[in-house]
Amino acid sequence: MLQSWSAPWRISAVALLLTVATRKKKRFAVLIVALLLGSSVMSIRIAALHSSQITQYRGASTEIVLEVTTDPTRVAPKILGTAFAPTSFSFIGQALEVDNRYSLRIPVRIIAATRSVDGLLPGQKIRVQAKVLESKERRVAALLIVSHRIEVLTPPSRWARGLATIRLGLRAASGSGDAGALIPGMVIGDVSKQSVDFKNDMRRSGLTHLVAVSGANFAIVSSFVLWGMQFLFRRINYRLCATALSLAAFIALVRPSPSVLRAAAMAAVLLFAHGTKKGRDSLPALGFAIAAVVILDPFQARDPGFVLSVLATAGLLLLAPKIRPKVLAPPIAAMIFCAPVIVAISGYLSPMSVLANVLAAPAVTPITIVGFVAALISPISPPISSGLIFLIKPCAAWISWIARWSSQFPVFTLKTGLYGFIAVALLVLLIFLGRAKVGIILVILIICLSWVQRFPAGDWHVANCDVGQGDAMVINLHHHRGIVIDVGPDPQLIDRCL
Known about the structure:
Layout: H1 7-21, H2 26-50, E1 61-68, E2 73-74, E3 79-80, E4 83-84, E5 89-98, E6 102-112, E7 125-133, E8 143-146, E9 151-152, H3 158-173, H4 177-188, H5 196-204, H6 215-229, H7 236-254, H8 258-276, H9 283-296, H10 304-318, H11 329-346, E10 348-349, H12 352-377, H13 382-406, E11 412-413, H14 418-432, H15 436-452, E12 462-466, E13 471-478, E14 481-485, H16 491-497
Parallel strand pairs: 6-8
Antiparallel strand pairs: 1-5, 1-7, 2-5, 3-4, 5-6, 7-8, 7-9, 10-11, 12-13, 13-14
């Protein structure tokens, strides 16, 4: 019987026993109750996904009525044999009816190899003939493969059409190039124009949080709206309500995806800290935001992006006030707190990311505010919108140049997984406790170990890397030359190998 229990239920049972055993120790008991609540919410969500009627049709094709939740995005082309697979689009929807028999409301992932998805907007209802497969994505109940034309049942609402017009207007006004692709990403979260090489440069330089909308963008927009509301309302309560409504509209504009919702939650914490003028007093607000996000979407707890958002916010609250000069405080504090998780995930750490963030910081606010205004007026006056974009395009070009320049420098290659996390977390703890000399010694030790344990060894002849479709083989010709065989369909994987 115990083997049939899901992991969350086991955690809940253990947490309940520990709560009873430690009921006199209030802080520890509260922590365990939180663990109990989170595990229960996760188990309920997992049970709902696994017990859905749509799982009965795995491996079969059936007719399904869906409500579109996210915008369809183009899937990176895959290779089938000697040719590219047909262009596909991916999006998430809510399954409402299955096989004209079952009524439900459960999230599913749709992969559609048809251009009839063009123009679909969130909120529309569609009917598809799809093959139902098991999905590796844990937040959805199934993966639907659609190869036939999609039947649109309902038109988009006026609200959805209005938001789509704003998004299309900004995308058209931003122009081409890396700078033109960065502006829609930072302002409305539209990364469709960004190339793989540009995203890789931003990632290697530590600027990946600028690729799309982040908590900083939400904080900037909210502060701008709050400042503007003082000219309309005298009472602070009215200003805060108007700012909250504006933030909700901004969330709808950039699309309420999990990453956007967590960014909005972290932005609310930073605004609270700014209003109280006391960062440490904002820790309860951070805890409340974490709990709210996890209860609404338990799978955020498994998302590295959510962990990084929380750590970056905690760094801004706890460590940034202690760092001088102030201009260096935000990027240094965020990087120090996020470093253990970055190393555990990617296996490398770029010391240039602090400098890159400091150099890019002055350009973030103008792009966010002016781009936000340009997006709002793009349906009314495209020429004025294009003029505003022209003013901030040098700022976007500056960030893209910083990304290309700083990505050329070497990074510290560290052991991934638990060992890398523990090593860097120990370093962060020493820095936070003020043991600077010990921290510097540990940094030197980590660099030396990473140099000694680098892969492959100095006398290597052949190396293989997993690139998602077989192995990529690299043959060493010596004298800084080599032959690469079978790079695979994903350029990020082979770039990481090389």
